[in-house]
Amino acid sequence: MTINPLGIHALVFAGGTTDQEIDRSVAEAKAAGYDILELSLHDTDNLDVARTRKAFEDAGLDLVGSRGLAFDADISSEDPAVVARGEKLLQDSVEIVHGLGGKLLTGALYSAFGNFGHSLSAKGRANVVSVLSNLAVEAASKDVTLGLEVCNRYETNVVNTAEQALALADDIGQDNVVIHLDSYHMNIEEDDFVRPFQLVGDRLGYIHIGENHRGYLGSGHIDFAAFFHAMSDIGYTGGITFESFSSAVVSPTLSNDLSIWRNLWNDGPALARHAHSFISNAIAANSDER
Amino acid sequence: MSHDTESTRAARRNRIGVHAQVWVGGWSREAATYAVTESAAAGFDLIEIPAGDVPHFDVAHTAKLLADTGIGAVLSLALPADGDIASEDTARVARGEQLLTAAVDLAAELGLDYVGGVTYSKMGLSAHPASPRARANSQAVLGRVAARAAASNVSIGLEYVNRYESNLLNTAADTVAFIREIGADNLRVHIDTFHANTEERSQAAAVRDSGDLLAYVHAGENHRGRLGSGSIDWSSFFASLATSGFSGPITFESFSDAVLDDTISHPLGLWRTPWRDARATARQAREFIAAQLDAAAPSS
């Protein structure tokens, strides 16, 4: 019995969000015992919001929406037109999450996804703060929280560490903006798996758990004992969502952006069951309630 | 520096190297003099010199620096997008072959025996997986370049990198398979702990999978800052190297925008400043590697 709701990213099961793909992801997430299903919002053109909301409700699953931005729609840009397109994408995403009955929109909400070829400018950062401040107010009116996911250097030049995420959240200054840590990214950017938890404390709102190579949990080298000790020590009771990607499941919009070249597994449902067991076991082993 | 006497250094089977870009961004005569002198003064056995700009390389000047200081050297390069031999574009493949050939010829001219790096594809984000034809083009080029290198006793290291820097080779096992298919004796595996940290099951697995093809190691922390300040399991890595009998160089790699300009730092995704004092960073790294080697040595 774990105190944290456990989630899984839909790309474990399906590459997109057509009706058929939604139905498969919902059924498999539920069958593997999860409480949360995270949907990437990069592919919402063929997403039937009302139908998907009902599928989640019928299954008793919570929804989390996630996304990054694009180079032509990026709120960390200095170009007002590019910033405006990024802001529009975020506003639409808040609307979609709300329509789906979700309470959290998270990810690299602060920038495009990829290597920029330049550092973040002061003006670009000011645009991030301004857009996300307004977005947070709008999201609050719909009871939606915004998560700032800390991502690695190859995915963004805006937030690579927990420290930077806190600084950005401070500047945004809205209560419904939380920090989102991801063990895969922490393995590349942070000094260890403990200090980021201590630093973020009760401002931690969401966790992605992923192995260093994004395959099976426990098949890599991330020190999950330290990770779960640190999580337990700050009393975190929020969602923990498993993220894993393999060339076996291809998203036309996401796979190449995430540089998924390797086949790390073929059977998504088997992977999902394993991860649920792994996370539950780790929480049980490392919580205070022994 | 305390425990590192002449006798412990003589007993060590691995040379300890430093990447030139810890010191300098280019290889002008002034930069070369500074980098080689500092490397030698910090006690390194070897410096890794960038061979991406062969036409402007002053061979006699570098050769004299190496002779005067008595330290060894290897060359490295990372193929650019317009020289991507793992491409279907024949112009890019041909350009990449030229760059590799020039680097091999430069090594021969300097009397060096190793050219490593991202020698099998471009270094950088890819928009799609590597196609079978792109892979075959890379192997064909490397087969020809390896044959030319063999005549000068030069080995070519294939440094596999993380998914964000190449779509072709991300693990030691894939690199070994790739080399075996080409079938040239002087193509070797080059492990970089920073990249292995993202892609491998463990650092130990990377060493094991490389087997006797392992020729060269980059020691880089998980965030590419100071060695020992991050999360890489160094004792396990060095124990694996000792057990495997690896006797090649171990070279410190770390990058800072305190040293490098934007044209080098931005493709690496270097958005933070991990350190400002190159000399202090390099000396600490050399001590760290020496202490790890001595602790893991079979006799200790």
TrEMBL record, chain A:
Q: Does the keyword Isomerase apply?
A: yes
Q: Which GO molecular function annotations are given, in alphabetical order?
A: isomerase activity
InterPro entries recorded for this chain?
Answer: IolE/XylAMocC-like, Xyl_isomerase-like_sf, Xyl_isomerase-like_TIM-brl
Q: Where is the signal peptide?
A: none
Q: Which UniProt keywords apply?
A: Carbohydrate metabolism, Isomerase
Extract the Pfam families matched here. Answer: AP_endonuc_2
- Domain Xylose isomerase-like TIM barrel, residue spans: 26-252
Q: Which residues form a coiled coil?
A: none
PANTHER family referenced in this protein's UniProt entry, alphabetically: HYDROXYPYRUVATE ISOMERASE, INOSOSE DEHYDRATASE
Designated name of the protein: Sugar phosphate isomerase/epimerase
Q: What is the lineage of its organism?
A: Bacteria, Bacillati, Actinomycetota, Actinomycetes, Micrococcales
TrEMBL record, chain B:
UniProt KW keywords? Carbohydrate metabolism, Isomerase
Query: Pfam families recorded for this chain?
Result: AP_endonuc_2
The chain positions of domain Xylose isomerase-like TIM barrel read 38-277
Signal peptide (residue range): none
What GO MF terms are annotated?
A: isomerase activity
Cited InterPro entries: IolE/XylAMocC-like, Xyl_isomerase-like_sf, Xyl_isomerase-like_TIM-brl
- Mind telling me what this protein is named? Sugar phosphate isomerase/epimerase
What is the organism of origin for this protein?
A: Frondihabitans cladoniiphilus
Phylogenetic classification of the source organism: Bacteria, Bacillati, Actinomycetota, Actinomycetes, Micrococcales
